[in-house]
Prior knowledge:
This protein is 9% helix and 42% strand. It has 422 residues and is mostly beta strands. The strands form six sheets. The chain has a 21-stranded parallel sheet that branches. Strands 1-3-5-8-11-13-15-19-23-27-31-35-41-44 form a 14-stranded parallel sheet, with no helix packed on it.
Amino acid sequence: xxxAKGFINIILAIVLLAFFAISAFLIVSRRSANPKTxxxxxxxxxxxxxxxxxxxxxLTSCREITSNGDYLLEQDLKNDSGNEFCIVMKNVQSVSxxxxxxxxxxxxxxxxSNFRVENCQIGDEKLNANRRRGVVxxxxxxxxxxxxxxxxxxxxxxxNSNNLTISNNKFDQLFYQQNYTNNSKIINNTFIAAELGExxxxxxSNNGANNTLSENTIDGVSKGIFVSKNxxxxxxxxxxxxxxxxxxxxxxxIKNVWDCGIETAGHVENSIISNNKxxxxxxxxxxxxxxxxxxxxxxxxxxxxxxxxxxYFYRTYGLREVGEKVYFxxxxxxxxxxxxxxxxxxxxxxxxxxxxxxxxxxxPTVTTIPNEIIISKGxxxxxxxxxxxxxxxxxxxxxxxxxxTLVVDGGNNRCQPLYDKS
Length: 422
């Protein structure tokens, strides 16, 4: 027999254990009945313990960041230092900057990796009006993210970089350009051109590989009337890219440009242009001519509305090096649609004679570019360009293809008879 006092202690322990067991059961039952399906349902306090919260270094003035860490901007900054850039990240390997929606004038990132910039407002109209470098300059850097940023005035300039993600930002009165940059993603941004002054395009990518330009909303704020260069306000094109391989341009919405929605230049190979919506373009939906050469590309499920031409391709300028070839070969055009085609083109209102134009017969016989080589017949490799299920419309004459042998009719194309310029 237990002593009376010991017996009472045992009973109390059993009661306490039972109480905690019932409480735990009720908590689990309540969560099971109302499961949380979104991580945002959990508060910071519930999901993060104080021991793993970031320790932020606070920025209170324009400066150069030369050490790794997490930085926080809790006030607007004014660049009174006389330095070219307000904030510079240089030779750092792991840096984050959260601006908490505060403003500063301009940013440079150079020779850095594993960086993240978010929730910032960058740009100063007066400071950047006559600058020769972009409001944001990224040079020789990799594995970086730009998220939820509003960038205004002039342009963003990226060069010799790799694995960048530019996402969910607003580009106001400026354009984005990248050169010699690979494996980067320009996704789900909004671009609005300046009302006065010409922009070559709102997204530009040259001399890269494996880049993605996707799900962006682009407004060139042009009247959408084709005119001679440098005589129209707004954006020339929505997106341009040149000398790129394996680039994907998809699901973009492009409107109000005075030339083409998407224009290419140089040699473009194994690339995809798909599911884009283009409207109010002064010349064409998709085209290219400057040093133009296409090999193994696919153009599919694009819609062009309110433009003179669906496609517009030819070659201008000569060869840039010995042994260069001019290609328009092994490309696929499938399920593209032309809606409400215009019957006139240009400010003079010239009559549209065909719904699309592809010409690889006529090449320049002279060149004004130093060291260029005149194109000869043996430099041109064309053919096996398959057109399948495209709707060129029936309100304008059919496409013009020169020579006709460069095209393979894959069936189910809708158009008037092919245009015969003879």
